[in-house]
């Protein structure tokens, strides 16, 4: 450690010692600060460790660059005559003023920053203690920079019909020398007033899209989008405008700078001119009515309800109909005629007791056969019109008036009541259900049968039959419910039926019903039920053994040198001896938006399952889950790199083997361990400007990584390129070791990655044959290594990482060749055309040759005939 470091450590120690002894300390906002000319600026100052009154006084001064040793007094909380002449008018007009946040903390306000306000500011607190002890002032630097932010949008007056698409373009640029970020957002004003604007969609300074409260659902459905084209163009796309979009839209850009205390401050804001949007509503001519042949029916009768739709040009429009009973949905018929029943009606529909038909586009029929008292109530139909068959949102909806249906009791009153003494039982206990039957006539010697029904919890299906007991005593179990058969005991006494379940397990939890049928000889022939009734539902809850698992929630941090190995600990404070533990490791990357990434899971049998982001061979070889003792798990990370930074934690599950299998008792989440790289004392100088690049698919692009400044002698450099995924996880793409070897951890990308390296400090990465999936954030890390002696190891001397490069991919250009290749029929035609032409040419030559030979033979034969006719002799001249 050098002399300067020793003095600094001693000073900090003395300062800490003084603080513990009640020493006065004045602190001011950490500089240097960069603020834009003309903006409103605040600087905070506070005092601690004082012994005087609770309300302290503050005085602000400035040391100008032109006279750094001369104090110029600005403003005071106690002395009105404190300001120098050059500040007197601005203080009186409150262009400069002090706001007291609390008794020992204030804010200095400069309402309109000027170039002459640049300098070193000092905050001084007059002494109120019995003696001078500590610091009474603190300083910070403020620089004034030009405002280069611009935002523009051409004002328009737009008129659209509800459901149309709208696109607006905003041009935003800046040329600030300092490293700043931009946020761009779109805002909506109802009407022409100047009242509060509503957020539509904002691209934050951290490159995150955030919809306004009223636009969240439309953003998730893709109806509201913000696209960045190139470096300066931002486009808002509203896929389906609504009447609520009526009003004014404008774009707002904000420039942000990171202060030395790592907080981001908005330093400039621009609003564009406004675009007026008028949204015309669709016509509302939909009329709905409901009717019934008879609104008063008896039990067992059939009820038919008709829903009539009236609308202009109804045959070409698309309607969805929902049937309602007492305001609750029964069934719906979508615009394609597809019928969907609500869960409680599915079983009756399967038995044919419920039907819903669509005879035409304007008539819908609901039929209920064998109506019961449960069908009493008010029926309505709700009709919604959709713009297109694929539409998910209704253009308009209309609800019919209600029709009251009264179901009168068929003389044979039969009733079943189901009860249980205990509704909540512990795992392994027994419970009993009693089904009591009653009627308005004597049930003595009346044959009865019972069906026991069960619906599991949570409900994943309608009630299903467990077992049926016939009047003869025959028991018929449903094959799929054999696990009940082994535990159940069935009994009958007079007019009650009992179902006793031994040693209940989790699968026995749910709702139970009994359905009773009676036969009466004087009503129907023997063997046919004259009345049927179903009981109320009784819920049984099976309480499983409680988990007593405790996982250490203490947060910690680990600092590791680059390329070294480390281990993250997950400690179990308490777990039952007879339980098994499963552990899942998660990583929250530094720039992740609250979404952790699963690394690896070791189940209760120690079988490893890696998450999607860590499933490559390179990642599997570096991240290992290991149980080092009965209560300690380790996540081992080998060869730590820059992309491994973040917060690690584990989720431990406690599993117990019960009668019917493994059961998860509970789980616990550990505290978070922050992993940081231990950087060398010396930092390399690198170009850290964040930039945006675009490349067309199929072409190549070079991502910059430029080392600046001097290097130590006899050193070597290594470089690692990272790609940041949507999850915030940084994955290494290519590694250049200091010995010159190159490693490509991601095999799929390896053939397309080239390290340009034209000069000693340039490690630009060339990505060839760009694909759509290559879009994202990229950055590099450069390290400097030096050998410790002849034949000894190389040690890390310095390190730094570049800024972020945002790569945007552009679809390939449509050329004649690409259009040909994208059309199989056209491509086949062009490939086959030469062959067809050759065949046609060969056929033409053959035909010509055939005709030529034929005519030649004809001429020879003619000459022979002429000779025969001339002298009466046959003379052969040769064929």
Q: How would you describe this structure to a colleague?
A:
- The structure is a single chain.
- By secondary structure, the chain is mainly beta.
- The chain has 7 domains: 18-145, Immunoglobulins (Immunoglobulin-like); 150-280, Immunoglobulins (Immunoglobulin-like, Sandwich); 287-408, Immunoglobulins (Immunoglobulin-like, Sandwich), CATH 2.60.40; 414-521, Immunoglobulins (Immunoglobulin-like, Sandwich), CATH 2.60.40.10; 550-677, Immunoglobulins (Immunoglobulin-like); 680-810, Immunoglobulin-like; 851-879, no CATH class.
- The chain contains 8 helices and 66 strands.
Please give a quick description of this structure.
The protein is mainly beta.
CATH topology (level 3) name of the largest domain: Immunoglobulin-like
Query: What do we call the CATH homologous superfamily of the largest domain?
Result: Immunoglobulins
Instruction: Tell me the radius of gyration.
Output: 42 Å
Number of strands: 66
Structural class: mainly beta
The major sheet is characterized as: 8 strands, mixed
Which architecture of the largest domain does the CATH hierarchy give at level 2?
Sandwich
Give the CA-based shape. extended
How much of the residues is beta strand, in percent? over 45%
CATH class descriptor of the largest domain: Mainly Beta
What's the total helix number? 8
Q: What is the share of helical residues?
A: 10-25%
Straight-line N-to-C gap: 117 Å
Mean of pLDDT: 85
């Amino acid at each position: 450690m050098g002399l300067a470091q020793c003095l600094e450590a001693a000073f900090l120690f003395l300062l800490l010692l003084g603080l513990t002894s009640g020493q006065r300390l004045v602190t001011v906002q950490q500089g240097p600060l960069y603020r834009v000319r003309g903006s409103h600026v605040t600087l905070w100052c506070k005092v601690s460790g004082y012994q005087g009154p609770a309300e302290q006084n503050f005085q602000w001064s400035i040391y100008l660059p032109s006279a750094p040793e001369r104090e110029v007094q600005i403003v005071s909380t106690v002395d009105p005559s404190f300001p120098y002449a050059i500040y007197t008018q601005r203080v009186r007009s409150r262009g400069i003023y002090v706001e007291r946040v609390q008794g020992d903390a204030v804010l200095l306000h400069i309402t309109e920053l000027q170039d002459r306000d640049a300098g070193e500011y000092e905050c001084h607190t007059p002494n109120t203690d019995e003696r001078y002890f500590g610091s009474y002032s603190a300083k910070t630097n403020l620089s004034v920079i030009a405002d280069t932010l611009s935002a523009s949008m051409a004002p328009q007056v737009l008129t659209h019909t509800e459901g149309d698409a709208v696109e607006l373009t905003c041009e935003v640029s800046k040329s600030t020398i300092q490293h700043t970020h931009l946020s761009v957002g779109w805002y909506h004003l109802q009407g022409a007033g100047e009242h509060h604007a509503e957020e539509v969609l904002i691209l934050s300074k951290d490159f995150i899209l955030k919809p306004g409260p009223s636009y969240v659902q439309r953003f998730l459905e893709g109806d509201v989008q913000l696209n960045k084209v190139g470096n300066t163009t931002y486009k808002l796309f509203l896929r389906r405008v609504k009447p609520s979009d009526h009003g004014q839209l404008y774009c707002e850009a904000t420039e942000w700078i990171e202060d030395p205390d790592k907080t981001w401050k908005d330093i400039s804001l621009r609003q564009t001119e406004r675009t007026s949007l008028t949204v015309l509503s669709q016509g509302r001519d939909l009329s709905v009515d409901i009717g019934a042949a008879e609104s008063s029916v008896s039990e067992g009768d059939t009820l038919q309800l008709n829903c009539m739709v009236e609308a202009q040009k109804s045959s070409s429009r698309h309607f969805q109909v929902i049937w309602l009973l007492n305001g609750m949905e029964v069934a719906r018929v979508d615009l394609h005629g597809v019928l969907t029943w609500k869960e409680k009606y599915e079983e009756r529909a399967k038995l044919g007791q419920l039907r819903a038909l669509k005879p035409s586009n304007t008539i819908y029929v609901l039929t209920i056969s064998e109506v019961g008292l449960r069908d009493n109530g008010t029926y309505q139909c709700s009709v919604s019109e959709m713009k297109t068959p694929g539409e998910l949102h209704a253009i308009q909806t209309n609800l019919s008036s209600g029709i009251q249906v009264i179901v009168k009791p068929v003389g044979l009153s039969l009733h079943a009541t189901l009860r249980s003494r205990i509704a909540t039982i512990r795992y392994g206990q027994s419970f009993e259900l009693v089904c009591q039957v009653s009627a308005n006539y004597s049930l003595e010697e009346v044959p009865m049968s019972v069906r026991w029904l069960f619906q599991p919890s949570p409900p994943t299906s309608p009630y299903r039959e467990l077992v049926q007991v016939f009047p003869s005593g025959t028991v018929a179990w449903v094959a799929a419910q054999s696990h009940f058969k082994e535990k159940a005991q069935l009994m009958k006494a007079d007019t009650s039926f009992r179902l006793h379940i031994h040693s209940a397990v989790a699968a026995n939890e749910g709702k139970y019903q009994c359905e009773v049928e009676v036969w009466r000889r004087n009503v129907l022939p023997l063997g046919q039920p004259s009345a049927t009734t179903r009981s109320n539902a009784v819920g049984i809850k099976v309480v499983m053994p409680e988990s007593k698992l405790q996982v250490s929630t203490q947060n910690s941090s680990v600092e590791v040198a680059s390329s070294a190995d480390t281990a993250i600990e997950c400690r179990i404070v308490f777990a039952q001896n007879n339980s098994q533990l499963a552990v899942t490791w998660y990583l929250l990357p530094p720039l992740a938006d609250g979404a952790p990434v699963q690394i690896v899971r070791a189940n209760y049998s120690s079988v490893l399952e890696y998450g999607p982001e860590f499933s490559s061979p390179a990642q599997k070889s570096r991240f290992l889950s290991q149980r080092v003792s009965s209560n300690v798990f380790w996540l081992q990370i080998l060869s730590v790199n820059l992309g491994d930074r973040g917060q690690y934690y584990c989720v431990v599950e406690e599993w117990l083997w019960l009668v019917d299998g493994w059961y998860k008792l509970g789980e616990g989440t550990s505290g978070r361990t922050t992993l940081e790289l231990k950087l060398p004392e010396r930092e390399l100088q690198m170009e850290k400007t964040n930039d945006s690049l675009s490349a067309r698919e199929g072409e190549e692009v070079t991502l910059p990584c430029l080392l600046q400044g001097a290097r130590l002698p006899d050193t070597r450099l290594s470089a690692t390129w990272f790609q940041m995924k949507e999850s915030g996880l940084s994955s290494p793409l290519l590694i250049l070791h200091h010995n010159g070897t190159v490693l490509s951890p991601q095999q799929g990308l390896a053939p397309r990655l080239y390290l340009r390296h034209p000069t000693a400090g340039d490690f630009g990465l060339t990505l060839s044959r760009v694909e759509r999936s290559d879009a994202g954030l990229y950055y590099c890390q450069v390290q400097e290594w030096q050998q410790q002696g002849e034949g000894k190891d190389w040690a890390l001397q310095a390190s730094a990482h570049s800024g972020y490069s945002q790569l945007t991919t552009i679809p390939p250009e449509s050329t004649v060749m690409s259009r040909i290749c994208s059309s199989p029929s056209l491509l086949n035609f062009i490939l086959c055309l030469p062959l067809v032409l050759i065949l046609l040419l060969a056929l033409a030559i053959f035909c010509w040759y055939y005709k030529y030979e034929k005519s030649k033979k004809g001429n020879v034969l003619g000459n022979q005939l002429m000779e025969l006719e001339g002298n009466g002799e046959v003379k052969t001249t040769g064929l």
